[in-house]
Design brief:
Elements lengths: L6 E6 L4 H14 L6 E8 L3 H4 L8 E6 L5 H11 L4 E4 L4 E3 L4 H10 L7 E5 L11 E4 H7 L12 H14 L5 E11 L16 H13 L1 H32 L19 H35 L8 E3 L5 E3 L28
The structure holds manganese (II) ion.
Manganese (II) ion binds next to loops.
């Protein structure tokens, strides 16, 4: 495994280092490749305990901001300082429960080499209903102009990211992966008399974040279009490279002159004239027996034959024909069209 950072966890945290320690212990205990992990703690300048927090098993980077910033700003500042190829927005009130979670996430991104994927884990509260802890690629962030808008106070950051991918889905590009059995237990819940643990949101903050989310809808639609353009452009480059490779294998242009290479178009009238002319020429040159033989050969040619004249790749990588193709010679008998060549006496083509 390389020492390169592939995964960044962005964790805004304030004055609860015990809980933060619990999260990082669980990360250290479950990560398959801790050496390619980067933890970014976004901490307030008036919080010395968080600013000096370290973990013995994990590389920690601190990003210090002025107190009182929005979650949008905290996550964005964390993103600006990140170096990982894949970036996860996380909270400090989480315990990672699934061993090898990072390999599972990595495998999802490997399925889409263009990097336009949203992976999310099971937070045990909101689960498949929303990507509470979203993971996206740096490529996505660069196309989006950041990991999230800075203006969201606390809520709707996950909704905002997920919504972009929901819009991709509308356009037939399904790029959201929910890892149901990769558990990041979210401890942010309150006892609710009528239900299991539920996540309670602050209505005053939601009153700001919800209209913001609505106001940015058109912006997300534009982003979805940009993402699809990027996906298409990448696919074209990959297809073009593979076509170039196929053409590079061909060294003999005459090897391409195989039967069936043209789309033959002919009016019914011209077709009948040709058949009659050929038949007459055959009878003239080789008699009725020759005509039957020629017709038999023509029928045999229509039958599928794996050996005859199909281009094959030799061990040297060069395309050649099972039977050596001759350069075409247009033979023009008196008044006969080049099409009549097939009926020349002694022709064993
Ligand atoms: Mn939380």
């Amino acid at each position: 495994m390389s020492e390169e950072v592939t995964m960044t966890l962005i964790v805004p945290t304030r004055q609860r280092t015990a809980q933060l320690g619990g999260l990082l212990d669980s990360v250290a205990a479950t990560t398959a490749h801790a050496e390619s992990l980067e933890i970014i703690l976004v901490v307030d300048a008036d919080d010395p305990a968080s600013m000096s927090f370290r973990h013995e098993a994990l590389p920690i980077k601190h990003v210090v901001v002025q107190p009182g910033q929005t979650m949008g700003v905290l996550n964005s500042e964390g993103y600006e300082a990140s170096t990982g190829e894949y970036i996860m927005l996380l909270n400090d009130d989480v315990l990672v429960r699934t061993r090898g979670w990072d390999e599972r996430v990595r495998a999802c991104f490997d399925d889409f080499p263009d990097g336009i994927v949203l992976v999310h884990v099971n937070d045990t509260l909101i689960r498949e209903h929303l990507c509470t802890f979203p993971i996206v690629s740096r490529t996505f962030c660069e196309l989006a102009g950041g990991i999230c808008p800075r203006s969201y106070i606390r809520y709707r950051i996950d909704d905002h990211i997920e919504d972009v991918f929901n819009l991709l889905g509308v356009l037939g590009v399904q790029r959201t992966v929910y890892l149901r059995d990769v558990v990041f237990e979210h401890l942010n819940s309150v006892a609710h008399p009528e239900a299991d643990r539920v996540y309670m949101s602050d209505p005053n903050i939601l009153a700001v974040d919800a209209p913001m989310f609505d106001a940015l809808f058109d912006e997300r639609k534009e982003l979805a279009l940009r993402l699809i353009d990027y996906i298409d452009q990448r696919a074209r480059l990959v297809a073009s490279a593979s076509r170039r490779q196929r053409l590079a294998c061909i060294i003999d242009p005459f090897s391409l002159r195989v039967p069936g290479r043209q789309r033959v178009k002919c009016s019914a009238w011209a077709w009948w004239i040709t058949i009659l002319q050929r038949g007459r020429a055959c009878i003239r040159q080789r008699g009725y027996r020759g005509l039957v033989q020629a017709a038999g050969r023509r029928v045999a040619r229509l039958l599928p034959s794996p050996v005859r004249s199909s281009p094959t790749l030799s061990s040297s990588g060069n395309v050649h024909l099972a039977k050596q193709a001759r350069p075409l010679q247009v033979v023009r008998a008196k008044g006969a069209s080049p099409l009549l060549r097939g009926c020349r006496r002694g022709d064993r083509a």
